[in-house]
Each structure stands twice: as C-alpha cells, then as structure tokens.
Amino acid sequence: MSSELDYYELLEVERTADAGVIKSAYRKLAMKYHPDKTGGCSDGEARFKAVSEAYECLKDPQKRAAYDRYGHAAYTNAQNGGGGGGGFNGRGAGGFSDLGDIFETIFGQNGFGGGGRQSQRRGADLRYDMEISLNEAYHGKQTEIEIEVSAPCDSCDGSGAQPGTGVKTCTTCHGHGQVRAQQGFFVVERTCPGCNGAGQVIESPCRSCRGEGRVDKPKTLSVNIPAGVDDGTRIRLSGEGEAGARGAPSGDLYIFLHVKRHSIFERDGTTLFCRCPVSITTAALGGSIEVPGLDGQRHEIKIPSGIQSGKQIRQRGAGMPVLNGRGQGDLVVQVDVETPTRLTARQRELLEEFRATETGDECPQSTGFFSKLKEIWGD
Ligand SMILES: [Zn+2]
Ligand SMILES: [Zn+2]
C-alpha cells in the first residue's frame, strides 16, 4: 500500500507548497494515471494509488504536519498500526512506543484514517463498578475482585492458529488489511473482507479459541483503594482489561468507585459535615458535645453559650484525608438546638419559674422581631 516515494515527490510539488497547489497537482496527476486513461495497466494503477495516498496525507494539515515531522517510514508505519514493530501501545515496546503515543494523541486510538491493522489493536478497556462505604473511603482498603475477562489463549499462545500450523499473508489484500475500490473518480478504502483487516489469515484456527487468540477466563485481581477516594474516583489497573485479538496488547481495567451515603456524615471534597442536636440548656449555658469521627475517635466540640440553630463549628483536621497527599480536611458540625418534648413535672416547674423572670432582654432577636411587628400593625 505504501509507496517508498516521498509524498511531495510523488505529487511533484515543493515541500512548502500550499493546499491549493497540492490539490491542483493531485488533480492533474490523478487524471493522468486514472485507470480509465491508462487502460488499467498495472503500472498506471499503482501510480494512481500512490498519488491518492500522498494526497490523502498532505491535504490534511494534521497528517501533513506529522508526516513532515516524523518522515515517511514513521508515518506509514503508524498508518499500518505499527507493522512488525507491534509497539504502538506502549507495552514492551521498542523505539516506536513513544511515537505511537504521539500519533494516538493527535489522531485518536485508531491511528490515521482507517489505516490501522486490526490485529495490532489493543483489547478493550473494561469498567468495573465498586461500592464502598465512607468509612472505607476514609481508611483506604485492600481488596480483591473476581472478574471474567478475555485473556490470551494458552493453547495457541494467543496467535489464533492451531499449534503446529502457521499463518499466511491474506491473498485478498496482500497483507495490507485494507482494500481499495474505485467509485467513479474516488478511491475508497475499506477493511479487507478476507482477513477482517488483520492482513494475515490462519491456516487452521485454534480449536480452543476458534482462532480468536483469546478466551474468557475468570481471574482474581487485588485492588488497592487509597485513603481519601471520592465518589466517582477511578482506579486504573493497567493491562488488566480485555486481551487484544491474536496477541495484541490488553486494554486497561478501570474501577469506578461509588461511595455509599453515610447515616451521619455528608462529604464535600475533604470536608465532612454533620448536623448535631444540642439541648436548649447547653445552647444557652454553653458546654461541649461529642461527635464520633471516622477515625474512630470521639471529637469534643465546644459549644459557646448562647449558640443558635444553624451555627457551624469547624474542627480542623478531623475531615477526610487528602487523596494521594498529606493532611486532612475539616469536620464541620452544624448545631440544631432541640426543644425538649418530654418534660418532668419538676422541669416544667423550673421552666415556668424561668419564664416568670423573663424581661425580653435575654432574647434580643425575639424582642427585635416583635417590635418590628408592632410597627407593621401600627400600634
Ligand atoms: Zn487459541
Ligand atoms: Zn486481507
């Protein structure tokens, strides 16, 4: 598929040629070498394909930039999904792995437009949803999961070929994985139907995996959940996803964490929040309450005298740990003053006695409120 000739030379243009010049050069040459003109001679057809390929690359500013930067060999290798190198997914790779990453970043997973050989495509990334408690999110957790995931077939070592038999180059596409067909003036490229894009066909498919090169197997993975994870945190287990077809690298497994609601605490980042009922006597006289922390300790929260409902008290460093970092967030306690609902006769007596001594100065807010009402009513 790939010509050895430089794309600029093929199109007979300067390396600095602009898009318009490249386009008209292509048009001229495509007319010249079009099979209708050359009568389908193989030389003309090859030339026509090469010119089309050069134009496909140079007309796209991104592809052209990559071609200019990395040169012909690197570009066509990337287009073929790495060719014999097999190192485009950054695993056990030789010199091309970094290059592969660059191409992936620019052009997405599948490399250049439709060019990637499927046999080289890495396996799919998998998602595993895991529910944990807020307590586990606080402390972190070492756990194991069991998943059923496709893994390289042992019988054929992932090749897909029955042991003792080999693979041969696909005769339909001559190993390119893509076939080109003409539709009028245009050349369309599509995945080879003979080999599904692999470029190679198996003489005799492995009986264990039916030629897929991978089989579903249960496996147990240990997962380390660090302290401080939040709802929606993802943990990546590199290479633990689905095996690639016929020896291609595996994808990754992503564990999506879901933190269950806690009966007392709400969480916002590293801040823990809870509402805490406080009796009217403690609210009026001051005192302290105990709040159990997720660290297993009791936190004593000082209540200043005269505190109102809704007031928040911050306890530094008693919140959630910082994920992959140092320190902890704060614990925020919101006071809810609770009116007593079950009074003994004695308590009622004391409160009646208290009421008899009230002048209105004890509760400035009430006094202010009622004087405003008086203004409204015009008294
Ligand atoms: Zn097999
Ligand atoms: Zn083929």
Topology record:
Elements: H1 7-11, H2 19-33, H3 35-38, H4 42-58, H5 61-79, H6 97-107, E1 126-132, H7 134-139, E2 141-152, E3 167-169, E4 178-183, E5 186-191, E6 200-202, E7 214-225, E8 234-237, E9 253-259, E10 266-268, E11 271-279, H8 280-285, E12 287-292, E13 298-303, E14 312-315, E15 331-338, H9 345-357, H10 364-377
Parallel strand pairs: 1-9, 11-15
Antiparallel strand pairs: 2-7, 3-6, 4-5, 8-9, 10-11, 12-13, 14-15
Helix pairs in contact: 2-4, 5-6
The structure holds zinc ion (ZN) (2 copies).
One zinc ion binds at residues 153, 155-156, 160, 206, 208-209, 213.
Binding site for Zn(2+) 2: 170, 173, 192, 195
CXXCXGXG motif repeats: 153-160, 170-177, 192-199, 206-213
Binding site for Zn(2+) 1: 153, 156, 206, 209
Fold and architecture overview:
It is a single chain. By secondary structure, the protein is of the alpha+beta class. The chain contains ten helices and 15 strands. The chain has helices at residues 7-11, 19-33, 35-38, 42-58, 61-79, 97-107, 134-139, 280-285, 345-357, 364-377; strands at 126-132, 141-152, 167-169, 178-183, 186-191, 200-202, 214-225, 234-237, 253-259, 266-268, 271-279, 287-292, 298-303, 312-315, 331-338. The strands form six sheets. The chain has a four-stranded mixed beta sheet with strand order 10-11-15-14. Strands 1-9-8 form a three-stranded mixed beta sheet. A two-stranded antiparallel ribbon has the order 2-7. It is elongated. One zinc ion binds at residues 153, 155-156, 160, 206, 208-209, 213. Pfam families: DnaJ, DnaJ_C, DnaJ_CXXCXGXG. This is Chaperone protein DnaJ. A zinc finger (CR-type) spans 140-218. GO terms for molecular function: ATP binding; heat shock protein binding; unfolded protein binding; zinc ion binding.
